[in-house]
């Protein structure tokens, strides 16, 4: 069970940092689907906190690049919920300002995970023709970044279409050894090297339906898609 004083977070470079000794909240404090009983260890980040942080990221993005029309490139599957909420917050902010923001949303899928481990190989699905990005301001929306290698490869792929500007929004960034790739420009939370699920993040296609971000104790020897 999580201790009441264990939520140690600090703000660094515009992100919220969750320290290594944060165990998460007790499952007894939340509701979750019965079919996941025994598969979860704790609730790591509650849904309400995710939404509040996403709203703030939306404001930061609007303040920085909201005066430009943009193409939002959502990384599926894990990024769809974060992207949907982020876009809704950006739309609301745009509607309540004197500036009109035109947004187009496109989708791409990446495959680079084997179980809970990132691999060296990156397969891009659905992004063979992104010519629409040429000369445009692009916001890549990704749910989670660990080593940054996948993001580095994706940026190289996107930049081949010669966009005017590219920015990256990531809900989660993991602290992992030997991180050498690219990190998001807008980060929701920096977390320890734990495998988290929920809020559309999966483990072998399970747990996407959880509202909260949780830590799972489930391990199976099948392939899951990166998120």
Description:
The protein has 227 residues and is α/β, with parallel strands linked by helices. Helix content is 20%, strand content 32%. The chain has helices spanning 47-65, 80-95, 149-159; strands spanning 9-12, 15-18, 40-45, 70-76, 103-114, 117-125, 137-145, 165-174, 186-191, 196-197, 213-216. The strands form 2 sheets. An 8-stranded mixed beta sheet has the order 1-2-9-8-7-4-5-6, sandwiched between helices. A 3-stranded antiparallel beta sheet has the order 3-11-10, with helices on one face. Helix 1 crosses helix 2 (80-95). The longest helix has 19 residues, at 47-65. The chain is globular and about 50 Å long. Mean pLDDT is 83; it is low at 1-7 and 220-227.
């Amino acid at each position: 069970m999580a201790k009441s004083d264990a939520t140690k977070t600090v703000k660094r470079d515009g992100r919220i940092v969750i320290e290594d000794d944060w165990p998460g909240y007790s499952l007894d404090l939340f509701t979750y689907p019965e079919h996941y009983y025994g598969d979860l260890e704790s609730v790591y980040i509650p849904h309400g906190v995710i939404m509040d942080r996403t709203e703030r990221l939306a404001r930061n993005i609007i303040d920085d690049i909201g005066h430009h029309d943009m193409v939002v490139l959502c990384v599926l599957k894990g990024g769809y919920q974060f992207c949907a909420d982020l876009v809704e917050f950006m739309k609301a902010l745009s509607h309540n300002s004197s500036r009109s923001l035109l947004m187009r949303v496109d989708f791409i899928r990446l495959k680079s995970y084997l179980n809970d481990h990132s691999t060296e190989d990156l397969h891009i699905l659905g992004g063979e023709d992104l010519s629409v990005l040429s000369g445009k301001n692009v916001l890549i929306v990704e749910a989670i970044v660990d080593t940054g290698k996948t993001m580095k490869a994706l940026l190289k792929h996107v930049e081949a279409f010669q966009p005017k500007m590219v920015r990256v929004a990531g809900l989660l960034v993991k602290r992992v050894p030997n991180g050498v790739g690219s990190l998001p420009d807008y980060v929701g939370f920096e977390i320890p090297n734990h495998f988290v699920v929920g809020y559309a993040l999966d483990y072998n296609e399970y747990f996407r339906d959880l509202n909260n971000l949780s830590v799972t104790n489930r391990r199976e020897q099948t392939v899951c898609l990166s998120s």
